[in-house]
Amino acid sequence: MNISELLEQGVNLMLLGMGMVFFILGLLVVVIKGVSTLILKYEPAAEQQVSPSGSNRINDDIVAAITIAVERFRSK
Question: Where are the chain's structural domains?
Answer without folding.
Answer: 3-75
